[in-house]
Write a structure and sequence with these properties.
Layout: H1 2-5, H2 8-17, H3 31-43, H4 48-56, H5 60-65, H6 74-87, H7 92-106, E1 122-131, H8 142-149, E2 156-161, E3 167-181, E4 186-194, H9 199-213, E5 221-223, H10 231-240, E6 244-246, E7 281-286, H11 291-297, E8 310-314, E9 323-325, H12 344-354, H13 358-369, H14 384-407, H15 409-420, H16 435-447, H17 460-463, H18 466-472
Parallel strand pairs: 1-5, 5-6
Antiparallel strand pairs: 1-3, 2-3, 3-4, 7-8, 8-9
Helix pairs in contact: 3-4, 3-6, 3-14, 7-14, 13-14
């Protein structure tokens, strides 16, 4: 944690949260509140009182990790956390996380692992349940829903059931929709939305936002489960964001499309010594656009580009006429990576589908930190805004810890702790800490380059009112209820 907190992007976020927002009275000292907030998000245990008791004990090592904050009372810490989170937009963490990933990519030129050379090339999309601190039961009317919600106005009941109406999973709260980098299993961009929000719609909004914040994002493939097997969603990915969707196709493919039986892969003549037609060989891919093409043509994120793309198939024996398939006609079966056949790209599709579960590691990291709201770990002190912040800080912390390991921030923190006597044996005498040594420590950090640096994409005036626009755009699929819930 000490290494992650000295990263330039995290330092900038900390300075923003500690800024004075009022004009009267002395500037509040929220260092202790911020230290507890980071401990909750990066070390787990969501109860403020528990973290407060841990940090108020005479422990110089904890003070060193938190940059020697001035200790406050319990009420002051709670008020400081709430005021910080309600003053600033949680989307600051999105910009910080993207900047951390960009810093991680910048390390590729050095001696780094092979996985870093594929950062953000393959993205995985998925959603998971986040329980609110409320009764976990379905609402029976609009009034009952408002009673259960309390101050959490975006929380709602969601139920997954079989065709026989047997409940598989149900919860009252939110849904975390997330894009994860497959190479590093790190979060890229996310949104905490109402539980009944439509995941594909949220993912499209996240892709548009990612292309806006980070136009040079090298993402080329988006891997997802069968929930995303929707023609409009796949078309928007392929042509609206120039990213190839890799989604398992269902059995409900219309028989009106050619090659529907082989899921879009043409077959031709029967080879000698066989009694079955053979798959055609993919000869050419024409017109498919990448993020570089979109930047060169100055096409806005979400606008369709490259709709005339097609794939040309030829007979392996040269006997049959070439066949053309176009994703614009049916993006479910006429895909960039074929569903069937002896093609190397079919193997790539199978590998990506197997690696799709890499997103689960991020979800389990949140559960391990106690941030997923499961049972007794629900964040009792948080409403909608605080839930967005605490989840976002937890996800951002995963990226920060990885970068701190790769760029030497952990080693720097360890050396500093040993030199000042904070990382010592239990039997060793406690270090002597005074104001002069603390000032010298901060000055040495700046000399080593650990100074605050703002994300290049961040503009605070753009963020004002963003949360309201999200829900006006229809992320929330919540419909008025009457009578009993389905």
């Amino acid at each position: 944690m000490a290494g992650a907190l000295r990263l330039p992007r995290i330092r900038w976020l900390s300075e923003q949260l500690l800024q004075r927002t009022g004009t009267r009275g002395p500037a509040p000292d929220r260092g202790h509140a911020l230290s507890i907030l980071y401990r909750i998000a990066m070390r787990g245990r969501v109860a403020i009182l528990q973290q407060f008791n841990d940090t108020t004990e005479l422990n110089l090592t904890q003070d060193w990790v938190g940059n020697f904050p001035k200790h406050l009372g319990e009420t002051q810490v709670y008020d400081g956390i709430i005021q910080m989170l309600r003053t600033w937009s949680w989307r600051m963490t999105i910009h910080v996380n993207v900047a951390l990933l960009q810093d991680l990519i910048a390390l590729i030129e050095g001696e780094v692992s092979e996985n870093l050379r594929k950062i953000c090339l393959y993205l995985v999309a998925d959603g998971t349940d986040i329980h609110a601190d409320a009764e976990q039961r379905p609402e029976v009317s609009t009034e009952d829903r408002e009673f259960i919600r309390g101050v959490r106005k975006r929380a709602q009941w969601r139920r997954y059931a079989t065709k026989a109406k047997r409940t598989l999973k149900g919860w009252f709260g939110y849904k975390l929709v997330l894009l994860v980098d497959m190479a590093t299993t790190l979060p890229v961009i996310w949104a905490l939305v109402p539980a009944r929000a439509h995941e594909p719609r949220v993912v499209l909004r996240l892709l548009k936002e990612l292309r806006t914040i980070w136009p040079e994002c090298p993402a080329e493939f988006l891997v997802a489960d069968g929930l995303y097997d929707d023609g409009k969603f796949l078309r928007a990915c392929e042509f609206g964001h120039s990213i190839h969707p890799v989604v398992p196709v269902g059995q409900n493919v219309s028989t009106g499309y050619r090659h529907h039986a082989t899921r879009g892969v043409p077959k031709c003549c029967t080879p000698k010594g066989s009694d079955k037609p053979q798959y055609m060989k993919r000869d050419q891919r024409h017109g498919f656009k990448t993020w570089r093409d979109r930047l060169a043509a100055e096409v806005a994120p979400g606008a369709e580009f490259g709709v005339d793309s097609f794939i040309r198939w030829v007979c392996p024996d040269g006997k049959c006429k070439p066949v053309i398939t176009r994703p614009s006609q049916n993006p479910r079966i006429y895909t960039f990576l074929p569903h069937e056949g002896p093609h190397k790209n079919v193997a790539l599709r199978h590998v990506l589908m197997v690696r799709r579960n890499s997103v689960e590691s991020v979800f389990w990291s949140l559960k391990n930190l106690g941030l997923a709201g499961d049972k007794h770990q629900r964040v009792k002190w948080a409403d909608d805004i605080e839930m967005e912040w605490i989840i976002s800080l937890g996800l951002q912390g995963l990226t920060a810890r990885r970068l701190a390991w790769e760029n030497g921030a952990y080693l720097d923190a360890r050396d500093e702790g040993i030199a000042m006597g904070f990382l010592r044996h239990e039997d060793a005498p406690p270090p002597r800490v005074d104001d002069l040594s603390i000032r010298r420590m901060f000055r040495d950090r700046e000399k080593r380059g650990w100074t605050a640096e703002a994300p290049a994409s961040w503009m605070r005036e753009v963020e004002l009112g963003y949360e309201e626009r999200i829900y006006e755009e229809g992320w929330d699929d919540d419909a008025p209820l009457a009578g009993k819930a389905a």
